[in-house]
Design goal:
4-stranded antiparallel β-sheet, alpha+beta
Length: 326
């Protein structure tokens, strides 16, 4: 029994001895063996050395929009701000007897631009004068009734009637004045009305001629306040998806540069061009475009062709990624 056990253990001992000889540590292989690839940090992240990043085949890139640099450069057209353009029209029909401004001239709010002579103007002014006289008479009668009532000569009923008549006369006077103001005002003679400028700005259109007879609502002038101008931009649907209101646009022309801000991105395509209309506004009050930082240049004019360049929605990765990251 003992000899059989010895014969069974002997082969196993030889195998263990040979395995121990073959697994002796090799100094060369030990030096070449890589160290642990990463050590966890307290917050759960893993720090990798540049050698480990390179060995793992990891490629580091900066996220961009649409797979490009996020920059769009397109031509645009300067237009007047729709909120800063006003039409001066004749509220009543008549004959033009005076035109005080020409194209390109600067006007202030309230400056007289034209004077119209009309029978309707005479009626409006006559009604104002008559209402003013009736109001003065009613006020005089009211003061008289108040004095008589205080002296116990007149009954309270007469005082109430006089007060009511004075109130009605004042209402009629204000109504006549508002009708005259809606048509114009001033003009000197009773049959003349002056048409004032509704805003401060420049005359950009004049369709009236001295001595011309015009009908009611006929356009005489067009005034534009160019302290703010708009840029009309047309973008492809793919580019328009990267633009949001509030984005900054750099506007350049030869020797000039300025900054605009996107205020409107159309939700629908233009029916003819199949492009997306985009509107940006730019301050033009003091000649917002400049040749240099220290020397101001004159303000831009509607109709100018400019170049717009914008950095749209940076920091969001869209589009194809490098193959190494897939």
């Amino acid at each position: 029994m003992t000899s059989m056990t010895f014969r069974a253990i002997l082969p196993l001992s030889l195998v263990a001895a040979l395995a121990a000889c073959g697994s002796a540590p090799d100094p060369t292989n030990e030096a070449a063996a890589p160290k642990p690839s990463a050590e966890p940090v307290a917050d759960g992240s893993v720090k990798l050395t540049p050698q480990q990043i390179q060995a793992a085949g990891i490629l580091l890139v900066r996220p961009t929009v649409g797979g490009g640099a996020g920059t769009i450069e397109l031509p645009a057209t300067i237009e007047g701000d729709p909120q800063g353009i006003q039409v001066v029209s004749a509220a009543i029909g008549g004959r033009i007897v005076s035109l005080t401004r020409n194209l390109g001239e600067t006007v202030r709010r309230g400056d007289t631009l034209a004077i119209i002579e009309s029978r309707e103007a005479a009626q409006l002014k006559g009604e104002v004068e008559a209402s003013r006289a009736r109001s003065a008479l009613a006020q005089s009668q009211l003061r008289r009734e108040q004095r008589l009532f205080a002296e116990r000569v007149s009954p309270e009923q007469d005082l109430i009637a006089a007060r009511t008549a004075a109130i009605e006369a004042n209402i009629a006077l204000r109504q006549a004045q508002q009708q005259l103001s809606a048509a114009g005002g001033g003009g000197g003679s009773l049959n003349r009305l002056a048409l004032p400028s509704p805003i401060a700005g420049q005359i950009i259109a004049r369709s009236a001629t001295l001595g011309q007879t015009v009908v009611a609502d006929a356009e005489l002038y067009r005034v534009a306040n160019l302290s703010t101008v708009s840029l009309s931009i047309s973008l492809s649907p793919a580019d328009a998806g990267r633009v949001r209101p509030g984005a900054t646009v750099t506007v350049t022309t030869p020797g000039r540069q300025g900054t605009a801000r996107v205020t409107f991105v159309s939700p629908v395509l233009d029916g003819q061009t199949r492009l997306v209309p985009v509107i940006a506004t730019m301050d033009n009050s003091n000649g917002c475009q400049r040749r240099s930082k220290s020397r101001p240049f004159g303000g831009v004019k509607p109709g100018h062709r400019v170049t717009c360049r914008g950095e749209w929605r940076e920091g969001v990765a869209r589009g194809p990624l490098p193959p190494a990251l897939v």
